[in-house]
Amino acid sequence: MTTGAFDSWADDCDHEQARLRAQRPSKAALKREWHRSAVVELEELGELYGVSPEVLKGAR
Fold first, then answer.
1. Could you give the CA distance from residue 45 to residue 43 in angstroms, rounded to a whole number?
2. SS3 content of the chain, % helix, strand, coil (to 5)
3. CA distance linking residue 13 with residue 20, whole number of Å
4. Does residue 34 contact residue 17 with C-beta atoms inside 8 Å?
């Protein structure tokens, strides 16, 4: 493999890795989504068991 061909191949690999990273959410985004889901779950459980929303807001 010539140097030029290797550089071209390496650039293609770099672009592919960047494309794959762009499709995957960041750890912070996953954590935010998990937190939102947990809050919704707490609110639903609070409604089910008659816990006031003010108490739930203090639990966050």
1. 5
2. 85, 0, 15
3. 11
4. no
Which amino acid does the sequence have at 38?
A: A
Instruction: List Cβ neighbours of 43 (8 Å cut-off, separation of 6 or more).
Output: 53, 56
Confidence (pLDDT) at 7: 66
Amino acid at 20: L
Contact in structure between 1 and 9 (CB atoms under 8 Å): yes
| Whole-prediction pTM | 0.53
pLDDT (0 to 100) of residue 52: 83
Amino acid at 53: P
Higher-confidence residue of 31 and 54: namely: 31
